[in-house]
Amino acid sequence: MAQTIIRLYGSYDSAMQAAQALKSHGFAGDQIGLLGKPRGVEAASSTGELVNTIKSIGVSGPEAEGYAEAVLNGGALLCVWPPYGRSLQASRIMDGFAPVSTDVPQTEQPPHQAEGWKLIDEPAPLSRLLHIPVLIKD
Hints:
Elements: E1 5-9, H1 12-24, E2 32-36, H2 47-55, H3 61-72, E3 76-80, H4 87-95, H5 111-114, E4 117-120, H6 125-130, E5 134-137
Antiparallel strand pairs: 1-3, 2-3, 4-5
Helix pairs in contact: 1-4, 2-3
C-alpha cells in the first residue's frame, strides 16, 4: 500500500505551487491530489461530504474533520502518493512551501516508531525488490 503524505497550506496558491514543484521533480499528476478553493470545495455540498472526500484518501475521522474545517476556512490540502522510495523527497518538497501547522488531531505513531525505529526512505536492493520497508534503530 502506498504511503499518503498530507500537508495543509494557508492558501490554494501555496498548495498549487507545492504541487507544481512535485510535478517538476517527476511526480505524476495522478500521484498528487489538491483540495481547496477554487476547486474541490465547491463540489462538496456539505461539510459532511468534504469530510467523506478527505476520508476517502485514507485520513481517519477526527483528522478528516479537522482538515475539512481548515479547507472550508480558506486553506488547501495537498496529498501525494509517492512511488516506493520517494517519500522523503516528496515530504521535503512539500515542506519547502511553508505548510501551516494545525490543531488537527493526528493518528498514533506506527508501532515501529514508538519503539525507537525509523523507516529508511531508500531501501536496499533486495528490500526494494520485495517491497519491504527497511527499519533502523535510533
